[in-house]
Specification:
The protein has two domains: about 140 residues, Rossmann fold (3-Layer(aba) Sandwich), CATH 3.40.50; about 70 residues, no CATH class. The protein is built from ten helices and twelve strands. A six-stranded mixed sheet has the order 6-7-8-3-9-10, with helices on both faces. The relative contact order is 0.16. The radius of gyration is 19 Å and the shape is globular. The chain is an alpha/beta fold. It holds the Pfam family ABC_tran.
């Protein structure tokens, strides 16, 4: 099982140069649970995840890991606790799958230390869990988009951190593999207690897999809590500028969002 940790953003403002993306945002990550961040494009979701991963220092406020300012902690020390799968990772040219996944073990390597049996087991398990063992000897740049995405997830799993941050982990995956990846992350959370924070675009998958849903609009948290409290027509209109119907998901019992486009709005009015 994992060690308990606290990861908190306090009045965080995040900017790229003169352009402020997130402003005075507060977020406390629930330890040992799955938190999913949703919102429209360019609302600040990925920027927030970068700050939680120590990749983007706040221009205001602070991010705390176990009560200490995240950006003041040594990189390797943070990487043993907190792992990140970014949105568009780039592999070194010509690297094979097994070697890329093995890079997930680098935070656990110390000066003059040797590759260990534990490292071998972590890599093998990560490949097995993501269904990429048969790709181990293939060059990453020869793989399909979906295969590459699963390999990157394997690298993140090989890191064996207590907190795992994932920016759109289902990108490039067909619906079958999307569900497999989200099931895998749920197993990781339930079996090991890994705290998971991820950005997802699909509201219905977010509702199905999240313990806590965080809706972001224009760099601020609009709503946060159980998916049934967050995914309401009013919140969806505020966050996405979209009309919708929300009904119970017949599979999970969670909210199921039915978007209403302008060609169907009349039918919605007629049945109201």
């Amino acid at each position: 099982m994992t060690t308990a940790h606290t990861l908190v953003a306090e009045a965080v403002t995040l900017a790229y140069g003169d352009r402020t993306v997130v402003e005075e945002l507060d977020l406390r990550v629930d330890d040992g649970r799955i938190t999913v961040i949703v919102g429209a494009n360019a609302c600040g979701k990925s920027t927030l995840l970068r700050a939680l991963a120590r990749l983007l220092p706040p221009s205001g406020g602070r991010v705390l890991l176990d009560g200490k300012e995240l950006h003041r902690q040594p990189t390797k020390e943070v990487a043993r606790t907190l792992g990140l799968l970014p949105q568009s990772p780039v592999a070194p040219e010509g690297i094979v799958v097994a070697d890329l996944v093995a890079r997930g073990r680098s935070p656990h390597q110390r000066l003059l230390s040797r590759w260990s049996r534990a490292d071998d087991l972590a890599v093998a398990e990560a490949l097995d869990l993501t269904g990429t063992s048969d790709l181990a000897d293939r060059a990453v740049d020869e793989l399909s988009g979906g295969q590459r995405q699963r390999v990157w997830i394997a690298m993140a799993l090989a890191q064996r951190t207590d907190i795992l941050l994932l920016d759109e982990p289902t990108t490039f995956l067909d619906i079958c593999h999307q569900v497999e990846v989200l099931d895998l992350l749920t197993d990781l959370n339930r079996d090991r207690g890994t705290t998971i924070v991820m950005v997802l675009h699909d509201l219905n998958l977010a509702a199905r897999y999240a313990d806590r849903l965080v809706a972001v609009a224009q760099g601020r948290v609009v709503a946060s809590g159980d998916p049934s409290q967050v995914l309401t027509p009013a919140v969806i209109r505020t966050v996405f500028g979209m009309s919708s119907e929300v009904v119970p998901d017949p599979v999970s019992g969670r909210p199921l969002v039915l978007p209403v486009g302008r060609h169907h709005s009349g039918r919605l009015a007629a049945t109201a």
